[in-house]
Amino acid sequence: MVSKTLLPLPDKYHGLQDEEERLRKRYLDLLTRDEERALFLRKEKFWDVTRAFMKRYGFTEVETPTLEITTGGAEARPFKTHHNDYDMDVFMRISIGELWQKRLMAAGFAKTFEIGRAYRNEGSSPEHLQEFTNLEFYWSYANYEDGMKLVRELYIEIAREVFGTTEFEARGHRFDLATEWALVDYAKEILNQTGVDIFTATEEDMKSKLKELGVRYEGESLERLTDTLWKYCRKNIAGPAFLINHPKVVAPLAKARADGRTVEMFQPIIAGSEVGRGYSELNDPIDQRERFEVQRALLAAGDEEAMMPDFEFVEMLEHGMPPTCGFGFGERLFSFLEGKTIRETQLFPLVKPKI
Q: Which string of b and e fits 108-132 if b means at least 16 CB within 10 Å?
């Protein structure tokens, strides 16, 4: 040290023992624990490998707004703030520019991606934080099947380049990303595990089943109850797998399949959780307007996680957007491969101030 040191460092052998103190004084934790510094160097490489992969495949890196008038692109409760100069309320984005990157597809960009921060004003868990880093890419003239092939290749490359293996153990599951990825049908998996047919069950049927299973649920709309049933089932899937054939009600931005009740959507599943989301993007303005109206009704009914409609985006679709595959994933994948909670894999996670 070449400066004044008024306080002693933690014991070199034991380090900081209290979990909250470790996060609050991360600088001391990193100084005294080599394995912690190594973790964050791997995290840097995680994003370096991802960026290099996207550029190698011809994707253009872009930047889109983090302050929005409406928070399109995901279903989550946003953070709200006030723009003093314009004297209007705005929201912190909850996706990495989904509706903006789709505008770039309409503008003639063939492939785009962005790596950035997203903000969601909702609960914390080992897999969820209010502020986190994600990647989203959009690919003109590709569909969800093209997306699945590219994503599998990306995840395997990340595993090999960052961790030197494709075999992992997390959340009580073992999985190998280099094996063939199974296809899991959304409705069939729920039917197999719970006996509920989501296409014929009523809200009361679903609430009764969730109560029987001892699962707490928030919101009583068909969309929320269906999603809660799936979340109960997913914990039993080790993966790697792709979840497909989602019901239309849970995917307001995905292109509908020919059956009219499911969409062209996919989600990578490992260790009982989704670690990404993608779909053939809905580019029919009439269908998109109708689905936004459904989301607006859910918001009016008190569903704070329903998607805010963006009718200027619908106007863009009326001009024409090419068929597009979009996909997003983030540092949750890194935390799973590390075998850590997502909070442990952030340099400076939010902690309450000491009273």
A: eebbbbbbbebbbeeeeeebebbeb
User: Is the bond into 240 cis (omega within 30 degrees of 0)?
Assistant: yes
Long-range CB contacts for residues 219-223, cutoff 8 Å, separation at least 24 = 219/303, 219/305, 221/298, 221/301, 221/303, 222/249, 223/249, 223/250, 223/298, 223/303, 223/306
**Domain 19-181+239-345, CATH:** 3.30.930.10
Q: What is the pLDDT of residue 352?
A: 85
Residue 249 confidence (pLDDT) above 70: yes
**Interatomic CA distance for residues 254 and 247, integer angstroms:** 10
What is the torsional sign of CA 105, 106, 109, 114?
Answer: negative
Residue 135's closest CA among 154, 121, 153?
A: 154
CA–CA separation, 65 and 68 (whole Å): 7
- Report the relative pairing of strands 80-83 and 182-185 from DSSP bridges: unpaired
Strands 80-83 and 111-119, sheet pairing: unpaired
Domain definitions of the chain by residue range: 19-181+239-345
Q: Express each pLDDT in 269-291 by its tens digit.
A: 999 999 999 999 999 999 999 98
